[in-house]
Amino acid sequence: MNAVIELLKQHRSIRKFRPDAIEQETLNTLIEAGQCAATSSFIQACTVIQVDNPTLRTELAECAGNQAYVASAPRFLVFCADMRRHQLACEMHGAEMQSGYTEQFLTASLDCALFAQNVAVAAESMGLGLVYIGGLRNQIERVSDLLQLPELVYPVFGLCLGFPDQDPETKPRLPLNVVLKQDRYDDTQDHDAIKAYDEQVLEYYRTRTGGTKEMTWSGQISEMLVKEARPHMLPYLQSRGFLKQ
Hints:
Elements: H1 3-9, H2 24-35, E1 46-50, H3 54-63, H4 68-72, E2 75-82, H5 84-92, H6 102-125, E3 129-133, H7 140-146, E4 153-162, H8 176-179, H9 190-209, H10 217-224, H11 233-239
Antiparallel strand pairs: 1-2, 2-4, 3-4
Keywords: Flavoprotein, FMN, NADP, Oxidoreductase
GO molecular function: oxidoreductase activity
EC number: 1.-.-.-
């Protein structure tokens, strides 16, 4: 164990923040840390939109399912997978960009996630708390219009940042032997391991909610995955120039 590993293992989603401001210099430092993340073939396909306008924040909170902290957190960032500048790079050299490939969508989205996770770890190292906001994809067309996103750019998720005004427990993760396999994929022991893990998660929710929520991990997943999952995403992404081939 070292300080970095201990920090990573202490991650919690924070949804209540003190009103203390985060200085622009601090935010710039976090974004620079994000830029240092690994990037596929040096494409650097992430753009971050810092949203300070209160009216815009309120509208984005509505898009995300009325998550109030989107509007109230000291800082709110939207991480976008961005192949627009690559089109410009091709134009600068008189080349015609071949876009719409699934691989480009994957590498841009992964670049964005790696960038954001660097920002998250850097923020937590400064005593800040955060929560990712995937709910922006609930109304992704509206979010794109609000942020005036051009073709070949889409919002992957948002990130609320601020100094924590709560101290939740860390949420237990799946057992190591469920996620770490040796030489081949072998899930013969996963059923029993997940059953034992379910008991941990059940106790976590009981403690966190004072007994008002009783939910296991497998129960939560089984409820989630019998419903459709944002079926509007594929036509939206295709309309933006992604996933055409």
